[in-house]
Design brief:
With 295 residues, the chain is α/β, with parallel strands linked by helices. It contains nine helices and 13 strands. Helix content is 35%, strand content 23%. Helix 1 packs parallel to helix 2 and helix 8 packs across helix 9.
Length: 295
């Protein structure tokens, strides 16, 4: 078997305990192929809670770069990817420190800073990748504390969430970017998430571009990890808010900002782009209207 060198891309912002928990779970992975190395590249976007300092203290082999608090998530991920391409690290269980021995990665792993991996997650992702061919993207499904799948692959124009199978991979059209294994061959073909998507949808666009380039994507069997922390804010779905507030939240960077969403629809859903572009905002307005009427 060829050696496996994983470049793990992470971002963080004011979530010290979460980040340390995620790194600890990454360090405790088991069942990996002999000789597997991990180079962790963390980009912190202006944390004020001591996240970078804590990571450097407890995981000195992790490469940590601090950037401004105004750096959007997608750009931070691109910076982590650039850092991984510059080499460095790979020698220890969480290698990646500047000045360490250089390595050429065989896979990138996108790992969201709020997802704690289960102990056999990486072994399962790599096993699935081996069975799916060297040119396939493998997605790790993520569940919440109640056992419900909240992030996974996506299928169809409606981006329907794909439930992981128990024993076999499930095909998908694109993916949430929480746990994604990208082989070097796919990276060389598709590249990083597009910078036009500042916070969200860069992962969906990446998966759709990969599919159009002939790359297959699969959701690995079982769940790769669990979301750390509480549930997301209800956003535009919050009961009792007015139509104007619902629309403002729906078009915010936390949900579907107008320009990036339009770019995504134009690229991947034509000729249905105008309808699909308006649909989420119309649903948000309708929910708020019905909620007010029922209240």
């Amino acid at each position: 078997m060829h050696s496996v060198h994983l470049a793990v891309l992470m971002t963080s912002h004011d979530r010290r305990a979460r980040t340390l928990s995620v790194l600890r779970a990454l360090e405790e992975q088991r069942g990996l192929p002999a000789g597997t190395t991990l180079g962790v590249h963390l980009v912190d976007t202006g944390s004020t809670d001591g996240t970078p300092e804590a990571v450097r203290l407890r995981h000195p082999a992790v490469e940590v770069m601090s950037v401004g608090a105004d750096t959007p998530h997608n750009l931070a991920l691109r910076i982590a990817s650039r850092n991984s391409r510059s080499g460095g690290g790979g020698g220890g269980p969480l290698g990646g420190a500047p000045g360490g021995p250089t390595y050429s990665w065989t896979h990138q792993l996108w790992l969201d800073g709020g997802v704690e991996l289960f102990p056999d997650a990486l072994a399962n992702l790599l096993r699935t990748a081996g069975a799916s061919g060297t040119g396939a993207v493998v997605v790790g499904a993520v569940r919440n504390a109640y056992g419900d799948t909240v992030y996974s692959g996506r299928r169809g124009r409606s981006l329907t969430l794909v439930e992981p199978g128990e024993h076999r991979p499930e095909p998908c059209d694109t993916y949430d970017g929480r746990v994604v294994l990208v082989p070097r061959a796919v990276y060389d073909l598709v590249g990083d998430p597009d910078k036009v998507f500042r916070h969200r949808m860069g992962d969906y666009d990446h998966g759709s571009r990969a599919r159009r380039a002939g790359v297959n994507a699969f959701v690995a069997p079982g769940h790769a990890g669990e979301c750390v922390g509480g549930p997301d804010a209800p956003g535009s779905r919050e009961p009792g808010i007015g139509v104007r507030e619902a629309l403002r939240r729906a078009a915010s960077v936390q949900e579907l900002p107008l320009r990036p969403w339009w770019v995504y629809c134009l690229r991947h859903t034509w000729p249905w782009a105008p309808y699909l572009m308006l649909a989420p905002y119309a649903r948000a307005a309708a929910r708020a209207t019905l909620g007010r009427l029922r209240g």
